[in-house]
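call fold(seq) -> tokens
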Amino acid sequence: MPLFRRKPPKPPEPSVPLPHGETVERGAKATLLYGRDEIDGALFLTDSRLLFEAKKSRRRAAHGDEAEAGWMSVPFDEIKTVELYAAPGASERLPSSRRQCLYIETTKGEQVWWDFGESEEREWAVAILQRSTALRASASEEPET
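ret:
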């Protein structure tokens, strides 16, 4: 039996309020791999979507964007594929520490890559797949009007 019982830490919150009733279940520092760009920020798993908040950078501030963070939202009903793959271009230019990334493909064919802790990526992939599959199943069971 452990000497000290610790509650799991509360996930971080996005810097803007979420819609009423939406809650954050997980949060992690993550890097969005976008072409040759790497955008640092935070990835949030809410009860209805994935939400990425880009960290404010000096480059963006130089262009007058310092007041706003960049956001990406991927609702679970738009997620087609969730996988763990080697980082794109890993053999060419990325550090050897990047063995895998969380890969999402949307129903519109968009591909999104996030990099963060390897064991966390596995847990996130399972959680995202469960939510998107459950949402699609419940949508297919609803009678058409």
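Strands lie at 24-34, 37-46, 49-54, 71-75, 79-85, 101-106, 111-115.
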